[in-house]
Amino acid sequence: MDAGTLVVVAVGLLALAVASGMLGLGVAFAAVPFLGFFLGDLVHEVQPLSLFLNGVTAIFAAVGFAKSGLVAWRPALLLTGVTAVGAPLGSWLAQGTGQAWLWGLYLVAVGYLAVRMFRGGGSAGEGPGRPRLGLALVLAVPISVLAGLLGVGPGFLLMPVLVLAGYEPKLAAGINAVAVTMPSFTALVPHLRTAEVDLGVAAVLVVVGAAGSFLGARLTSRFVSGPTLKRVFGVLIVVMTAVKVVTLVTA
What we know:
Layout: H1 3-23, H2 28-35, H3 42-67, H4 73-94, H5 99-119, H6 133-150, H7 155-164, H8 169-179, H9 181-188, H10 199-223, H11 226-250
């Protein structure tokens, strides 16, 4: 990757890291389609780099939320344990899955979640004061496997599940930031043998992503309301999905 392209990628990733940091997601769900414009191999280039970036950005987002007291540690640690086990299985499955199928699964998953987030939260009678941790833990199992398969880390799927399970959006973002850190790195393990990553490019993007995610978490903690946070999530994944659909159709 030449210097000019690297600058473009770094600026784009900074914007994505700020937005994903606001949601406690880690940047991979947005970085996968974005980096796909510049790197040709989804499984061996895009996914390993995105997973590493996801883990780093989630750490810095978690620090940002923790400084504001927006991390509920018990559900965060329980979800970390569940997702850290399931994510590597998905990554292992990705090694033998066609790229067209992986992109198709990605687009279906983010499209479904965008619809659910715009339609609103959990079931009747459930609200932010009565979160259902058990439901979130059960759903975290298939979520972590699917996220590892897609190479994005579980945050973009876990965040709306936490909201739908009754967690207030800011608290859900804080829990999510902690819960997705470990599975991002465990999901990376099956990729290590076959990864083709430029370490110089990766180093630049890690620094940019870390700074952006911390800034995003602090913005949410101080200035962004819960309903606004849900809309930000919905808009972000709709935009990223639309861009990737156009790219696939015109390729």
